[in-house]
Amino acid sequence: MTKSALQIARAAYQPKLPKALATGAVKVVEGAPTQSVADQEAIKALFPNTYGMPLITFEAGEAAQLPAMNVGVILSGGQAPGGHNVISGLFDGIKKLNLANKLYGFILGPGGLVDHNYKELTADIIDEYRNTGGFDIIGSGRTKLEKVEQFEKGYEIIKQLGIKALVIIGGDDSNTNACVLAEYYAAKNYGVQVIGCPKTIDGDLKNDMIETSFGFDTACKTYAEVIGNIQRDCNSARKYWHFIKLMGRSASHIALECALQVQPNVCIVSEEVEAKDMSLDDVVTYIAKVVADRAAQGNNFGTVLIPEGLIEFIPAMKRLIAELNDFLAANAEEFAGVEKSQQREYIIGKLTPENSAIYASLPEGVARQLTLDRDPHGNVQVSLIETEKLLSEMVATKLAAWKKEGKYNGKFAAQHHFFGYEGRCAAPSNFDADYCYSLGYTASMLIANGKTGYMSSVRNTTAPAAEWIAGGVPITMMMNMERRHGEMKPVIQKALVKLDGAPFKAFAAQRDHWALNTDYVYPGPIQYFGPTEVCDQPTKTLQLEQAK
Ligand code: FBP
User: Fold this and answer.
1) How far apart are CA 27 and CA 21, in angstroms?
2) Which atom of ligand 1 lies nearest, measured to the CA of 202?
3) Residue 423 beta carbon below 6 angstroms from any ligand 1 atom
4) Cβ neighbours of 410 (radius 10 Å)
5) How many CB atoms lie within 10 A of CB 517?
6) Largest separation between any pair of C-alpha atoms in the chain
7) Which of 122-131, 418-427, 485-494 has the weakest average pLDDT?
8) What is the Rg, in whole angstroms, of the alpha carbon atoms belonging to the chain?
9) Element (H, E) at 488
10) Are 285 and 246 in contact, with CB atoms under 8 Å apart?
11) Using CA positions, which residue lies closest to atom 20 of ligand 1?
12) pLDDT value of residue 376
């Protein structure tokens, strides 16, 4: 494999570990028993073997040689920078406990466990992937591990390979499934432990004990670099408005973090749109107003950040999509028989007046998207809607109307961007390289101490890595009951942007200033070598959340 100069130099980087992990073995300090965040009785009844376990913190212990054990690892869901370091930390952790320990990787996600598709991860393989981005060491997949037959199929290969514990690296859904699996194996007395690790660039798997999910740091820094470059271009040519959509299936953490890093003219936060019951027209009017105010100062350029999940947070759009889903499911044949050129009018004639008016106001392409490309459950695939184009087209229409009324006198030309995949496999920043390696190493210690149903936890992450606190959090502690596909299910609570949280408040306090003034920040590329204040800064979100 040909490597870049950076890859070669970066391979030698030794990730930093919390002090407690540096000696190899650890002393376990147990805290008080825990409760789930809500619905305690229901969760307790569903997880009788793994509910109520204590929080765990590790302190430095005596190096010890433990009996040999084998461990399995799975990468689940969307890629996030640092996955390879979780695996290398896990590998180094178990090898430190006993050189005979083996690590098996299941191929292409949870499906690899069910289909018995695996490979042993030897030192040679691990060394190829240290400090690199991507999940390609074993691949990832989105198969949901939720059925008893899958658990049993998995157990067959686990037994065959003599695996003592399985580490599942995933987001909220994958860790929910890890918890269900841990409970199942515990109830069956199979002697198989299951440990989770918090992954997702979306940043929405976090709580008091899990300060951040890994990959968020690198992904946001990668997007912020490119947005910064666009802002400099925009401030040089002074002729374009850039509409930039940012990944994040549901929560707006990525857009908010990027806004804090680059100080754009506009950043929409979906959670605020929902809380204020804003309509699509309200969002468009807000952006158009900023464009018009800047134009009045002679500035016909700017940047607008848009979170990927926005559409589903606009209450009126949510209602329109719900009615469309039902209508098209019930009238699929009739709709298919309508001439393409007549479909829009046909839909307008069928919906309730409120939804019909919203549908009629949508640009042609978006309206068509809402009636096409449904997923296997019959839902509109909102992530395929080009929100950045939708908003800029609607802003253009509004500005044209204002021009006629003499309320606006400027030029509006838009450019569109979508940043998502560009950041998911970037080489992990120092923060993610260290954090992920520590999470993996922590998982090995949870396993060595016989724990199951725990998520690997590394806290105090705005301090230098040596002062980070490693330990474990019972996954049941993060759970509540939510309606999914018509049934109440135990799930890990998704962490959306809190409007009373420090990151949003910091943004809200400055956004009017950023809107009118060109006060861009240009973060530049992630630096892997150099002064600590350049290379080791955590996200603004973490810094603001943890500021005392
Ligand atoms: P995870 O929640 O699995 O970490 O994935 C997050 C994400 O990157 C979202 O930001 C994005 O909406 C989605 O995955 C894209 O999914 P896919 O990789 O299947 O295109």
Assistant:
1) 10
2) 10
3) no
4) 17
5) 13
6) 80
7) 485-494
8) 25
9) strand 487-492
10) no
11) 78
12) 57
Integer Cα distance of 288 and 435 in angstroms = 41
**What's the CA angle centered on 436, arms 432 and 442, to 5 degrees?**
150
Q: Quick check: pTM over 0.90?
A: yes
Residue with CA at minimum distance from ligand 1 atom 5: 78
SS3 breakdown of the chain: % helix, strand, coil, rounded to 5? 45, 15, 35
pLDDT band at 374 (very low <50, low <70, confident <90, very high): low
Neighbours of 296 (CB within 10 A): 13
491 vs 482: CA distance, rounded Å: 7
Q: Give, for ligand 1, the residue of 79, 249, 252, 313 to mutate: max count of ligand atoms closer than 8 Å to Cβ.
A: 249
pLDDT at residue 119 above 70? yes
Q: What is the pLDDT of residue 321?
A: 87
Atom of ligand 1 nearest to the CA of 213: 4
3-state secondary structure of 195: strand
Structure tokens at 183: 């409970």
Classify burial at 169, counting beta carbons within 10 Å of its beta carbon; exposed 0-12, middle 13-18, buried 19 or more: buried
The two structure tokens encoding residue 225: 């670099």
Q: How far is the CA of 515 from the centre of ligand 1 (A)?
A: 30
- pLDDT averaged over the chain? 94
Return the SS3 of 433.
helix
pLDDT more than 90, % of the chain: 84
Is a pLDDT exceeding 70 seen at residue 343? yes
Q: To test the ligand 1 pocket, which listed residue (108, 247, 311, 313) has its Cβ within 8 A of the most ligand atoms?
A: 247
Environment class of 513 (CB within 10 Å of its CB; exposed 0-12, middle 13-18, buried 19+): exposed
Copy the structure tokens of residue 516: 């009118």
Q: How far is the C-alpha of 293 from the C-alpha of 540, rounded, in Å? A: 28
Mean pLDDT of 532-546: 95
- Using one digit for the tens of pLDDT, what is the confidence trace for 285-341? 999 999 999 999 999 999 999 999 999 899 988 899 889 888 988 888 899 899 988
Tell me the CA–centroid distance for residue 264 and ligand 1, in Å. 24
pLDDT confidence of 198, banded at 50, 70, 90?
very high
Paired tokens of 76? 């689940």
Residue with CA nearest ligand 1 atom 6? 78
428/435 Cα distance (integer angstroms): 10
Q: Name the least confident of 21-35, 177-191, 409-423.
A: 21-35
Query: Which residue in 185, 189, 196, 191 sits closest to 76, CA to CA?
Result: 196
Residue numbers annotated as active site: 202
Type of residue at 112: G
User: What does 359-401 look like in DSSP terms, one character per residue?
Assistant: HHHS-HHHHHHHHS-B-TTS-B-GGGS-HHHHHHHHHHHHHHH
Ligand 1 within 6 A of CB of 248: yes
